[in-house]
What does this fold into?
Amino acid sequence: MTPDVDPVPQVDTASRAGAAIHADLADLLPAVGRIRAAIETVIEGKPEVIQTALTVLLAEGHLLIEDVPGVGKTQLAKTLARALDCSVRRIQFTPDLLPGDVTGVSIFNQETRSFEFRPGAVFANIVLGDEINRASPKTQSALLECMEERQVTVDGTTYELTSPFMVVATQNPVEMEGTYPLPEAQRDRFMARVSMGYPSSRAEIAMLAEHATANPLDDLTPVADAAEVSKLVDVVRSIFVAPAIHQYAVDLARATRGHTDLRLGASPRATLHLVRASKAAAALDDRDHVLPDDIQRLAPVVLPHRLLLSTDAQIAGRTAEQVVADLLRTVPVPATARA
It folds into this structure.
């Protein structure tokens, strides 16, 4: 007679995984809160822009800040970099900047009688590209490999970049004097584009009071290091995305490719960036899964800068932002957020 054996308890793998994600989110939110608070001590009245910058950081993307001179583009980029205790390099893009200044060059060493590689400014965790569209397209293209593959190839040798790696670039509107439009491949590598906009009256008065005697950036101390940022990125990767959400992101991207107002729609890379950014947004909202609302909230900053308007749309005064807004109203939203 076979003795009675107590059944082996079944482990709920899904519940255990969910508990682990919630525990990770409990660590993520305070860390991000410290970074946000540090940035807000310097950047007044721009919570949406700061939120987008943090979203791109956690989604392993790159950020393009476009606006007229003097509204704080470079200040935001410098503040984000200063809040993190990691390596930071700045590239001031000018018409005479060379690709080797960005990626690095091989220098012949007279003593060793061999070539030595001198790393360029991209060999850092945070790279600040100031006024990126004032350099020639040839120099701008030096960033293509490092932004997409996180590596640099010089003279046939490939060098890996450190992690985390993020490019924060600023640019003036292309209509301004002395600017070059970014190549389509370059713009497509930026996960999001934001505009600072003019500050409110209250924020501008506060800026005058606080910045008149000293630069608040001088008193900013790092509140997180590279290892902590890498851990936060790993938490974002574990956020759940339902098949219906994937389908919704693809439907939005495909709708741009056949739109009559566009001659260039969103690439598959744009779809990937949209989902990654939505995962980061969900984590920042203390959720372990992505909702359609996340896709809708991020699409206006992830998609428009990748789109090229048709000639007729330009004549009619249409903008890429308007096209994306129209698609968000017309593309069906999935009925369920999770599968």
Observations:
- The radius of gyration is 23 Å.
